[in-house]
# Entry
Amino acid sequence: MDKKDIYEHLAKIYLDASSKRKKKGKEYTRLFRNLFIGASSLAVILLLALILPAALNRNPKNAEIALVLAPDAVKINFHFDPARKECYNIPLNQLDISKYKALAFSVKKVRYSDTVNLRVEFVNQYKEKSETYLQDIPSKWEEFRIELFRFKGISDWSHMRQLSFVIEEWNAKDKRGVVFVDNIRFIK
# Structure
């Protein structure tokens, strides 16, 4: 063997050995990278599995199934010079509300100094009528929920004719004013 052959042989051994070391280092780097990606993915999946259901069902007790009757605010502008009452009627067109438990809505008066009471009234197809009163309507939006069993004069809720919000002269301190009713709905 001459010098040239020895150098080539040593170079081959050295280069093969150094490329094996590089391959081992690359394999470990790739292995650690894959483990890190896998662990991170697993952590994200577990986090989503724990947080997502809680975010979707924040408080199931407050969740409601509702039938919205009036999507926009209703303005009842009362002026009791010739009239004795002002009302806003919602025709229910024989609606079956027997499966619902309550009527809910938001209400407010415009002037703080007014003292206004609101009558809420139902009429069914048999002309059975029942009402309840809300005392002293607030000047800021307030949510009201009236259980349907409080309307004792209605025996059949399967064919309802009309829902009314009424302001009567004897239930208002001033002869003029405005009351808003919004988000009117039946709740199951």
Residues 44 and 50 are 10 Å apart (CA to CA).
